[in-house]
Structure formats: structure tokens, C-alpha cells
Amino acid sequence: MDYATLLQILDSTIRLATPLLLACLAGLYSERSGIFDIGLEGKMLMAAMCTGAVAALTGSVWLGLLAGIAGAVIFAAIHGVASITFRGNQLISGVALNFVASGITVLIAQSLFHQGGRTPPLSGGARFNPITLPFAESLSGVPIIGPLYSEVLSGHGALVYIALLAVPATWWVLYRTRFGLRLRAVGENPASVDTAGISVVRLRYAAVVITGILCGLAGAYMAAGLQAGFGKEMTAGRGYIALAALIFAKWRPWYALMATMLFGFFQALALRPDVIKKTVGFDVPVPALDALPYILTVIVLAGFVGRAIPPRAGGEPYVKER
Amino acid sequence: MKGEIASGRQVTAAPYAIELRGISKAFGSVQANKDISIQVAKGTIHGIIGENGAGKSTLMSILYGFYKADAGEILINGHPTAIPDSQAAIRAGIGMVFQHFKLVQNFSVLENVILGAEDGALLRPSLAKARKVLAELAEEYELDVHPDAVIEELSVGHQQRVEILKALYRHADILILDEPTGVLTPAEADHLFRILRNLKEQGKTVILITHKLREIMEITDTVSVMRRGEMTATVRTAETSPEQLAELMVGRKVLLHVPKGEAKPGRTVLEIKGLRVRDGDKIERLKGIDLTIRAGEILGIAGVAGNGQTELLEVLGGIARGTGTILLNGDSLDLTGKFSDGQSRRRRGISHVPEDRQRLGMIMDFTAWENIAFGYHNDPAYQKNALLMDNGAILEDARGKMERFDVRPPIPSLQAKSFSGGNQQKIILAREIERNPDLLLVGQPTRGVDIGAIEFIHKRIVELRDAGKAVLLVSVELDEIMSLSDRIAVMFDGHLMGTGPAASATQVGLGCLMAGLGGADTRAMAGWDISSDAHEERQATGMRA
Amino acid sequence: MARIPRWADLILVPLISLLLAGVISALVILAIGQSPMEALTTMVTGAVGSPYAWGYTLYYATSFMFTGLAVTVAFHGSLFNIGGEGQAQLGGLGVALVCLAVPWPHWTLALPAAIIAGAVFGAAWAAIPAYLQARRGSHIVITTIMFNYIGAALIIYLLVNVLRPAGQMDPATARFPAGAALPTLHELPILSAIFDKKIPANVTLFVALIACWLVWLLLWRTRLGYEIRAFGKSEPAAIYAGISPFKVTMLAMLISGGLAGLMSINNVMGESGRLLQNSSEGAGFIGIAVALMGRNHPIGVVLAAILFGILYQGGAEIGLWTSIPIELRTVVQGLVILFTGALDHMVRMVLGLFFRPRRLEAA
């Protein structure tokens, strides 16, 4: 593999990893607060449709983004009502909302645009346009690092940089703020938070809403960044890959970045079977690359590479004991 | 205002730190607290004593804002105070140390202490301040814990100190401790009492909830007794005696008389040699036990909860694995392999009435008849053919067993959870005793059981003994051990401290052994074999890892 | 928690949940400017209005019975098997391999062989998540989701690179021999009097009904069923009783996977006559809704499977004849799962209001 090809693959790694990263961080907030969320997929899909629709109608990607966030937050709120207020089964709620999202996005898109459940193709101001980072031009001449900066790091849509910044921000919130301390505590032992006089319910709702917002960003990027418009089932299991990445990262922000970049890299490679063949010397079937994130996650779950211990109170509705 | 309290002295000088007036609370049809009034003077240690289920914890939960009382009022330092939630309780200067600690296991001590009492949105200043305050508190009250230690790496005693620190950090003037010594070793309990005395000296008010008379006598200034949701008396500790308190607690003479004849011990049924058991966290819970039980005798294991009794029952019952030798009727039991499970144990003639009947002994959602087959579902009598079970046969069997054990109501199709605690226990006893085992394991047979059922249960256990069977009884109720057993073994920190006849055992002597001590009181017990592990002097023994 | 009578819990809770899902769906239909009444009539005529319609409804119901039973058996062992999709597809692989391996002379010989192959392959795909749960404590929900994707990738690889006959473009196996074709209801004696047209519902329906009966026997009449239910209610108690968590977890999941795999008799062998990509078409997931709606009881599963058969077939008709997209059925499916599985406490609370004597007046 020559350097130029590598740069191309790394460039698409970043683009493909961005929705995974945003969704993974989304899941991190919810699960750290003790609410399991396998409905990341549905929220992303909902956000993608809302973004695609509103951006197409208004021509503004930013209004689209807001709509996407709103759509995902609504779904997050339903998940919150089911799992926090009514103490329902969080896994089932997540599964259910994925189905609802899968169907309702097509219903809405179809009724708005009559294009077979798609939204019209977006262009110009209705998409996230590439941002050229400072000095990208002038540094491009520097050997090795220059092209890496100007071709791989520079030239992405705003959400890519927001996603990358969300990693240190999440770390900071989690480990350096009062909210983060309480969030981590409520996911480990809600009784400790409750006896300290803090509302478990309010904390968990806050976490679930943040999950919705980040899923909204992920979905918006799918519809107006990675692609130009919403299409049926366009997230194609990315919500589950993000979930896998979250486990792979053991619910920690910096590891989430690494895990999603790794999985994004697999996806980028899957798009270039020619490159793989040239590099390893034989045909690696594309389905094998598709399955790789899931296989790696199973290996991590099995505890063969360090144990992935989820937040202790995860999945359990909090009931005050007598 | 009704409900004049027993001690009834006129309020003159300083107002009471806490005064409860006519507190009532019902859960559905169960009246947990009935018109309760207490006054606790500032700078004293006040004990609240009562049996399990007497309503102590409910009362304290009301005080801490977990529940809202149906009626009554709370006065803090003379001011009527509404406590709708824990935050209000904290603001009123109340701190609570729960029986089950409310700590975040993977947080540091500092993080646990500031949780909910942070000074701002950022942690750094709060952590720095807490570090300083903790150092001061440690010095003042002998409450030293490393501020950066992670909770899950601390011993239970240290975890409890963190709970106390949490309360003090929130400027608690009134500290409530709910059954604080249940999980502590005697040395840890001693240290806790020193801390409580220090707190008292500094003018703090302490409320100690317990069901252990010894602790009340040792540390409190005044004591209130609760029975079935009611406050039966409040007295000065110095003016009362354990006997009087026990009577107030139970409502009658406490030493239960179990009518039983002389034991006629026969051949050795169970012989345990060098038994060691580790728990899920790899901590050794049984550290080399030697024990024999003969046919026709009841061997009682006395001890503070958590000193290895549970593990002994579990390894014998096929729940836990261990090392060493156990001989049943002369043949060894498998302790680690394929035949170390509950099914194999039952086949060998061991029946097991577990300590925690709701968690282990039955499936609460199953019917009574399904529970009668629980553990014996492979019994050929319950099978129709090679593939199918004979539910009719089980139902019939259940009907008979429930009748013979006076289970009320005698309806086999009722779910286990709809029976009272005593009747659930009778269902389990019927199932286990009627198997006519060579060895019956019984853990806490009368915990949470009403008095009528207690006598019935004791009678059945004695009958099994008289039928020439061996019985291993584990109970944290010393009275039960003393009245039911023929021989007693005392367990402390995974060791047997002493074994001897029940007839010559004294409460004081057993109490010493339960605390890991030897001494004159234990030597005075005739026919007792005292272990060399029992120390003559009180010292820090048995600190947990 | 509101206390309501047992019969209400068993019957009213699923019905109210269905009603709520129906109402919300109607609102959705209104919101996208269509007529709920039109949708309902189209659905009813298209799904139950004629023997021909029933032929499709029962075809779908057959698949859903298998996947519903799969979820049910695992649920009783407190295992949430969300991997029915992958297990069904792998079951399809087993069925396809058996059907292609031998030039079957008659379907009565091919069917038992296919049943064994489908069940074994489905069970094998559940075995690894089951083992990881039982021995390593890996959460079965996550591992079975992962195995759905791994299974789909594996099938695609096999169809494209291994099983595709030379010269065929689409990723699928060769067609099965005629002797492996299962008779549809229209080809069976007596039933042919009712079903006068070629329909997809086939003899697998009877296999499914027998499976329901066998699962009922398993759960409430065998020692293994007793152990699965006991383990599902309380693991510590099960250990006390000498029930091996490893054995129960493995067997419950193997049976569950096997049942999901059996679904392929219906669609792969009975309908398409060859293995295609994504053969399960979401039936594995619908099994979750069917099990929840059917209260994890085989009789309930039969009824719920027929209901979802109606929904599925009716939904297809709606997609065909009205301006409402076919995806409406996915929405209803999701809502039913949401109400029966996650908001069941809410539904009970609402019901509790009707069953509780008005205590406010007394106080």
C-alpha cells in the first residue's frame, strides 16, 4: 500500500468513524447512568430522517441538525419514560424503539416527499460543507506529516470536529465535574446518590437526554455529511457497531475514540477490497471485514482481552428499598 | 397530644436533639409504626432495640426522609421540622449509616464523601477541601481511612467509617446507625464504639439501632424498646438489665423453653476434618474446621453473623466448594467435583433448610406444590415416565405435607409469595424433614417467624433428633442455640473457638468465644474444649483482608 | 405496584397494549394524511378476508410461532435471546445443505432430515453466546446481537463465494430438488377444499403447532422445564436445589436456537425452495413481540403469531393498495413490543385503577 492510498483510507476512516464515535459517546452517557440503551440505532435513524427532511425543506443544514437532535431526543425521552419512570425492561424498550424508528422514518419521509421513503438529495447549504483547517494549504508540502494534516485531518464537515472534541469534553465532564461524579455514581450505586439527597430520576433523565442529543448529531452527520439525504435503514446497523465499540472501550471516552476509529478503519477497508488484496496478498472477503467489529466485541465480552465490566447498576430500574 | 412517653421527665433546659411525637406509618395493611414518641437528649447515645421486623428501620427511614409518616411530627432541637426527603434530613443535621452501605464501590473515599455535598460544578476544589476536613475528622474521632483508597479494597469496618465520615462531612449533629455491628468483627465493633464515644464527647447525638442487648448495655445512655411497631418503653440504660429489656422486646420471658428429653447420641454421622472454604472474592471464610455430629443429637453453631457459618452450611449443602475432608456415615463427600452439587447431597441423605429462605429455599413465584418438589424434582415418585413429571403426584404429596406441618392456608396451588414468613418456613421444613435425612442442616430456622410457628418448628427439629437423626443448627440467636442444641460449637472468623455440651454453656462464656476470646468465663464451662485460637487478651484479631 | 387479578394480567394487559399500539398507529396514519379506516379495512380483507388471504397470514404465522417459541423458552430461563434472526438464517443454511445434498425422492423423507438440520444449525449458532453467558458471564443480549451480524456476514460469504452455482448472478443457492418441496395447504387433502389457490402456507404449520405443544410439555411437564423455570426465577435458589446453571443456560439456549432454526423449514424449504440472503426477513425479531404478546405461553404464542401474521400480511396489502408504506407494520410491531415488554407496568397501573376499590372515598 502506498502512502497516498493509506491517506485516502485514513480520510474515509475518519468520515466513517464519526457517526460511530458520536453514537458511542451517546451510549456512554446513558449506560454510565445505569440505563442500557440498545436503541442507539433507532435514534440515529430518526435524527437522520429529521435532518434530511428539514434540511431539504429549508435548505439549511443547521435547521436540519436541530430537527435531527429534536427527533432523537424525543425517542430518548420515550426510552427514559419506559425505563426510568415506569421501570420497564430497558433492553426490550431499546429493541422496540428501534423498530418504531425503522418504520416511522419511512412513513414520514414518504408522506412528505413521495420518493419511496427517501428525502430529496441535499446539496450546498443543506449539507455540512468541508472546513479547511488553518495552514492546511501551506503545510501540505511538509513531507509525511503535511499531507496527513491537509488531506486526512483537514477538509471534513463541522460535525467531525465536534465529534473529536466531544471525546476530551466527555472525559472532562465525567471525571472533573460534579455532574460527572454523580452520573458515574448513579450508574454504579443509585442508592448512594439517593441517600445523598440527589434525585436519581432527574440525573438519569439528564443522561438520557444527552444521549439523545449526541445520537441526533450522529444521525444528522449520516444524512447531511456522510451522505446527501435520508434513505430507508441508512444507518445499517451503525447503532449496534457503536454499542459494540462502547463495550470494546469499556465505557471510557478515550478508548471509545480508539474503538470507533478501529471499527471505522475496518469499514474503510471494506470499501477498498483491491487495496487489501494488494497488501496481504490474497482475497479477504468483504463480509469478513463487516463482521470483524462484532467478532472483536464478542472476544472482549468473553473476557479474553481484559474484562469488560459494565456499570454495576446498569439495566436495573432503581427502587428505593424498605 | 397522646402518647406520653415512659420516662416522662419535664423538659427544662436544652431542647431535645430529636423528638418524635406520635409517628405512625402503615404499608398497606401492615402497621409498621404505631403512634411512636421518643425524646433524645443532646450529646447522648440512645439505643433503639427490638426484634427483626419490630419497625425500627421504618422509623429511622421516616426520620431520614425516605418515607413520609402517616401521622405525627418531628422536632429537631425543639423546632418542628418537615423531612420530606433525604436532602431535608441532611439539612436538619441528621446523618445515617445504613445497614447496607450506600457507597460507590469503585470510587475513592474522597469521591464518596463529597458525592452530593460538592461545593461547585467543578470537583477539584471540593476534593481539596474534603481531603483537609477528612484529616481533621480522622484526628478528632479516630476515623482514619486513606482518602484515596478505593472502597472495594477496604475492609467492611473501614467502609463503615467512610459512611460515618460522609455524615460528619455534611455537618451531621445527629448520627443514626442501623445495625452497625452485624457485619463487623469484634475488634472492628470495639473500634466503632470508641468512635461513637468520641462523637458523644464532642456533643454529637447518636442513635443506635440494634437487636443485640449486649451492645445496648455497653454503650447507650438511654434505650427505647420496640415491639410490633409500638414503642413499649424508654428507660435509662443504667437503670435496666438485659433480662428486663429482653422481656420488653419479646413481650414474655425470652429464654424459650423447648420441651425435649435427654439426647441419646449414637454413631458418628458427620465428621469434618480440616475444612477450608473460600468465597467468591477468594477470601478464606472457613479456615480449617474439625467437627463431628452424631446420630440423635442437635449441634448448634453459635456466632456473630458472617464468621463462616453460612459457608459451612453451603459447603455441606452443595452450594459452595471447599477443601478438606467431610465424611458422611464414614464415606467421604465430594467437595469440588461433579458430585459436589445439591442434588448429590440430597441423594446422600443431607437435607438443607437454608438461612435465606426467600432467596435460596424456594421460588417465590412458584406454587406451594411446585416448591414441595424443589430440589427433589428428580425423585422417581414424582415422575410419570422417563420423560414427563407427574404433577398430580407432587400435588398430592404437597397436600399431605402441608397438612402435617400445619401450613396455613393449606392450599397447594397458592404461590409461595402469598404465604407468611412462618408458613413459608413450614413448607420448606415439611419438604426437608419428611425426606427423613441422615443429616439435617438448618439455618436461622425462626428468623422472621411468628412466635406460634417458632415453637412448632423447634418441636419438629427435636422430633427428628429423637428419631435418631443428626441435626446441624446455625442461628445468630444465642437463645435459640442454647435452648435447642445438645452440643454447641462457637464459630469466630472461620475457626471453631470451642465445642462443648449445651447444658454447661453460659451466655457470658459463649459471648466471649463468639468474640474470639478465651478467659475465665469460658474455662468455667464444664466439659468444654476451648481452641488455642481463642485469645486470652482482647486484641485486634481477625481483621478481614 | 398496582395489584390486578391474574386473568386480567394474562389477557387484558396484552389486549390493552395492542389497543394502545393500534390507537397510536391510527394517529400516525392520520398524521401522514391517510385514513386509518381505509388501512384497517384493507388489512382485514387482505389478511383474513378470504382463504387466499389466510394462506399468507398462516404462512407468516408459522414462522412467527417458531421464533416466538424460541424467545419464550429462553425467557423462561431469564435469558433474552435476541439472536433469533441469526439462528434462523443459520437454520436455513442447514436446511439448504440437507435439501441440496440428497436427491430427495419424497418430501416425507426430506422433512425430518430438514427439521434435524435446521434445528441443529440454529442451536449451534446459539451455542457460543450460551457458552459465553454460562461460563464467562458475557451478556447474552449483546452477544446474540453480535451473532446476528456475524451470521448474516457468514451467509453472504457462503452464498456469494461457495454455494452459488456457476453462472448464477444473484447470491443464492441452487434450487432444491422437487422431492424436497413441501406441499402447501392447497395441495393437501381436505384442506384443498378450503384453499383453492396456490398459497405459501404449507405443512410446516402443523410442525409449528406440534412444536408449540412440545414446548408446553417441556416447560410444565418435564424436569428440564422445571429446572429452566426455577433457574429463570432465581439463580441462587436453583443452585441451592442442585440445578446446574451451566446445564440449564446451555440447554435453554440450544432449544431456543433450534426452534428459531426450525423456522427455515417454512420459508426456505416450504416457500422459496432455495436459500437467499436475509432469509429470516425480520421474523427472528418479531418472535420477541410474539413471545411478549403471548405472555411466554405456547397457547399465547399461537394466538400472537396469528395476530402478527395478520399484521404482516395486512401490512403488505396496505403497502400494495393504499398510499401508506408497508413499513407501518414495523411501527405496529415496535409499539406492541414497547407496550407489552417495556411499558407493561404503565399498562398495569392503568388497569389497576379499574380494579382497585376506590380507597380515596373511605379515607
Automatic annotation (TrEMBL), chain A:
Pfam family, any one: BPD_transp_2
Coiled-coil residue spans: none
Key word Transmembrane helix present: yes
CDD domains: TM_PBP1_transp_TpRbsC_like
Main location, first listed in the record: membrane
Keyword Cell membrane among record annotations: yes
InterPro entries: ABC_transp_permease
Transmembrane segments: 12-30, 42-59, 91-113, 158-175, 205-224, 254-271, 291-310
Cell compartment(s), UniProt: Cell membrane
Membrane association type: Multi-pass membrane protein
Alphabetic keyword roster: Cell membrane, Membrane, Transmembrane, Transmembrane helix
Protein name: ABC transporter permease
Organism in which the protein naturally occurs: Albidovulum sediminicola
Organism lineage: Bacteria, Pseudomonadati, Pseudomonadota, Alphaproteobacteria, Rhodobacterales
Automatic annotation (TrEMBL), chain B:
GO molecular function: ATP binding
Keyword field contains Acetylation: no
Keyword terms, alphabetized: ATP-binding, Nucleotide-binding
Lineage of source species: Bacteria, Pseudomonadati, Pseudomonadota, Alphaproteobacteria, Rhodobacterales
Domain spans labelled ABC transporter: 18-253, 270-518
Highest taxon of the lineage: Bacteria
Organism encoding this protein: Albidovulum sediminicola
Protein name: ABC transporter ATP-binding protein
InterPro entries: AAA+_ATPase, ABC_carbohydrate_import_ATPase, ABC_transporter-like_ATP-bd, ABC_transporter-like_CS, P-loop_NTPase
TrEMBL record, chain C:
Membrane topology according to the record: Multi-pass membrane protein
Residues spanning the membrane: 12-33, 53-75, 110-128, 140-160, 199-219, 239-263, 301-324, 330-355
Pfam families, A to Z: BPD_transp_2
Keywords: Cell membrane, Membrane, Transmembrane, Transmembrane helix
Keyword Transmembrane: yes
Compartments, record wording: Cell membrane
UniProt cross-references to CDD domains, sorted A to Z: TM_PBP1_transp_TpRbsC_like
PANTHER family, A to Z: ABC TRANSPORTER, PERMEASE PROTEIN, GUANOSINE ABC TRANSPORTER PERMEASE PROTEIN NUPP
Protein name: ABC transporter permease
Protein source organism: Albidovulum sediminicola
Source species taxonomy: Bacteria, Pseudomonadati, Pseudomonadota, Alphaproteobacteria, Rhodobacterales
